[in-house]
Write a structure and sequence with these properties.
Arc Repressor Mutant, subunit A, six-stranded mixed beta sheet, four-stranded mixed beta sheet, 23% strand
């Protein structure tokens, strides 16, 4: 018995039609099919089913398999007044659905009888409409969704309850297909676990991690989480290949001339180390002269590159169009991801909130990124050690960008750069259970003691911007004054 026959056997064993399952003996009308697809997709969403099914060839009350003369894969849509048109039925339906969900049509034989089955994915972001009207299943009946506002609200909220990572990207895979598509070797290496002795143990571990889901018929569904992390080739997953990381190296300070570009088509866990190594190989370096030898030192600290790339993966809005991108210029590195952050950039150093907690959790345990809330701290600390300008966190219309700047002396920075660096230094001191002083800021900028007045003016300007404040407003001595972030 093949997978489709096993699926049908499972469906007819359901006690009755339900919100995500409908049986039909034969075809009635094109519009009826469109309305059923809308209703079943919306109902599957509410009832947390990854798919709904519309089956032709089964009697709805008895679940007896009767077979059907309906062949939707080759059928054409009915035109005006019921006349045949030249448009394929499947395309006709797709054009009238909003959003255009990726339903599948299967035709097969079961005990000598022809069966037609529509496999309909649950909607995730909004109700599915057919010809500008959304439908819903109420028991075994199809009704207009606007008659049930509480059900509509559940669909709009379901995106929170059913995060992107948990959704299915590829269904009904055999165990061999799972192993061929996902890099199990890398998973166990990164997790510092011994590789299991049997394939079933590998798959059981993947199921426990929600990388795959086990089906009643012995097949598996691969989740977005599993594919994003462990895909040997993201091109094998149509819905995820646009989430691959891109790195572009430019000649100079603008985008006029591209030197090279790569697309990281492996899953994030599989390709991360090689990606970071490749990026570091493209970065400019400074020549340091020691007592006897010249030494090439990278312009940017590796820990900063590593953490910011990992952050772009973890904090991207996976439901938004777009992909993580690293752009390397002669004077800066820009790291962008789709979506705006859940917290304001001023609080990146002390707060943590991720859209993709499942993704973040696995990457932390795989030692690809730092523990919660410590990644940006380490970026700021490393930037100070390398005497670089403060990173700039920018929130744009539909994406977030972090800019790392090449080395500049204090007198080369503009006022905004200096104030940003002062604020970030103050935050770093605070999260390390210390307080910023004139001396600590002089050390950050490598300013001599006799230039303390320059730093005092900078502290005053940062206070005026309401980014920092005196730890003790009553203290009269400026020499020993200590400062904390505005939010402390």
């Amino acid at each position: 018995m093949d997978i489709l026959q096993q699926l049908l056997k499972h469906l007819i064993q359901q006690p009755q039609e339900c919100q995500w399952l409908e049986f039909k003996h034969n075809y009635h009308s094109d519009n009826e099919i469109g309305e059923r697809i809308s209703a079943l997709s919306n109902s599957a969403c509410i009832h947390h089913q990854p798919f709904a099914y519309l089956v032709f060839g089964v009697e709805d009350k008895t679940h007896n398999i009767l077979g059907t003369t309906f062949k939707p894969k080759s059928a054409t849509a009915k035109g005006e007044k019921g006349k045949e048109s030249k448009e394929e039925l499947e395309n006709w339906l797709i054009q009238r659905l909003n959003p255009r969900i990726d339903f599948e049509i299967e035709e097969f034989e079961y005990e000598g009888k022809h069966i037609a089955l529509f496999k309909i994915p649950a909607t995730v972001n909004q109700p599915v409409e057919f010809s500008n009207t959304a439908y819903i299943r109420v028991g075994s009946y199809t009704r207009k969704l606007n008659e049930f506002p509480e059900k509509a609200r559940k669909i709009w909220k379901n995106n929170i309850q059913n995060p992107f990572e948990r959704r299915i990207v590829l269904s009904n895979c055999t165990s061999d297909q799972v192993i061929s598509l996902l890099d199990s070797q890398i998973y166990f290496e990164r997790m510092s676990l011994p590789y299991p002795s049997t394939q079933k143990s590998v798959l059981d571990k993947f199921c426990a991690e929600k990388l795959i889901l086990s089906n009643y018929d012995g097949t598996y569904d691969i989740t977005n989480l599993g594919a994003l992390l462990l895909a040997k080739d993201l091109e094998q997953f149509d819905l995820l290949k646009r989430k691959a990381i891109r790195v572009i190296v430019y000649d100079g300070k603008n985008k006029l001339n591209t030197i090279r570009e790569i697309i990281g088509n492996k899953g994030y866990m599989v390709g991360f180390e090689n990606l970071i190594e490749w990026i570091n190989g493209q970065l400019p370096s400074n020549e340091m002269i020691g007592q006897a030898f010249r030494e090439e030192i990278r312009m940017y600290p590796e820990i900063a590159i590593r953490e910011l790339v990992a952050n772009a993966l973890i904090h991207q809005d996976l439901d938004e169009k777009g992909f993580p991108i690293i752009e390397i210029f002669s004077d800066r590195v820009e790291i962008s991801n789709a979506g705006i952050p859940l917290i304001v950039p001023d609080r990146f150093i002390d707060e943590y909130q991720s859209r993709n907690e499942l993704l973040a959790d696995v990457l932390r345990r795989a030692k690809i990124c730092e523990e919660k809330g410590s990644g940006i701290d380490k970026v700021i600390a490393a930037v100070e050690v390398f005497q670089l300008p403060a990173p700039n966190f920018l929130v744009q219309e539909k994406h977030t960008k972090t800019i790392l700047y090449a080395h500049q002396q204090l007198n080369e920075m503009d006022k905004k750069d200096k104030i940003r660096a002062t604020y970030q230094h103050c935050c770093l001191c605070y999260v390390n259970n210390e307080k910023m002083t004139n001396q600590s800021l002089r050390e950050r900028f490598k300013i001599d003691n006799h230039n303390a007045a320059i730093i005092s003016r900078l502290i005053g300007e940062t206070i005026s911007e309401n980014l920092i404040k005196n730890d003790d407003p009553e203290a009269k001595s400026k020499k020993y004054a200590k400062y904390i972030p505005y939010w402390a």
